[in-house]
Amino acid sequence: xxTDRLVVVLGPTATGKTALGVKLALAxxxxxxxxxxxxxxxxxxxxTAKPTLEERRGxxxxxxxxxxxxxxxxxxxxxxxxxAAITETRRRGKLPILVGGTGxxxxxxxxxxxxxxxxxxxxxxRRLLAELxxxxxxxxxxxxxxxxxxxxxxxxxxxxxxxVRAIETxxxxxxxxxxxxxxxxxxxxxxxxxxxxxxxxxxxxMLEAGLVEEVRGLLKRGYPPQAPGFETIGYRxxxxxxxxxxxxxxxxxxxxxxxxxxxxxQLTWFGREEGIHWLPAEPEPGERALEMVxxxxxxxxE
Length: 302
Description:
There is one protein chain. The chain starts with a strand and ends with a helix. The protein is 51% helix and 12% strand. It contains 13 helices and eight strands. It has two domains: 4-115 and 176-299, Rossmann fold, CATH 3.40.50; 122-173, Histone, subunit A (Orthogonal Bundle). The chain is globular, with a radius of gyration of 20 Å. It is of the alpha/beta class.
């Protein structure tokens, strides 16, 4: 039986999820749990649009700034940490409000995915990553095809993180079990012809705010360019520029293009999900969202 209630705010990047999550938390006595795979990293502030303390407006935010850049993270770890944060939030009598755009993370939590037990063997992980550097992701994908063709068919050959994890776990995929959550899923959307200029304007603001200086500072602190945290749009392009591989104008173009492509993938992902109540991101959706939460609460439907 599903017993845990929560509100979920999801959608593509740059649609205002953070602001809506905070507004709902203030009105409903809630706390925010981040469902973003990049906000977990300390130091990735400007390029991830991480909410500042001022923007959080006193609302507790969970699963933000919990790892250093060189520490790996996975959907299974997120599922465990998010579940614990939801439980603790409810124990304090607060409404959990899950906010984010990482579709797989949200799906794994809300559908109760099962994951292979145990943490990966560090020696096995090191050997696989060494092979990845020497031979490329396609070679690892071929190995998975030989060992577990069904699982390999579910993964893109260049999706090296999931390919490595699949090899470590013998090709056993994560699968749905039974979720204990009943959630009201609020999705923010806007036409692409409006979203894409908004994305590009936000990239310009990030660059003006000092994204390059932020990346340079993190590298000076000793984090390697290959650190998991740097596998983030904006950071990897700036690193390539700082290494002298890409001119500045092209760097800016690539950040904008890659962010647009990411938003497109998010739109496709969430478009396949069921049970999302879509709201226009403009005009400001807060009042409409509060009305939906009130009706959901009164009907006992989450």
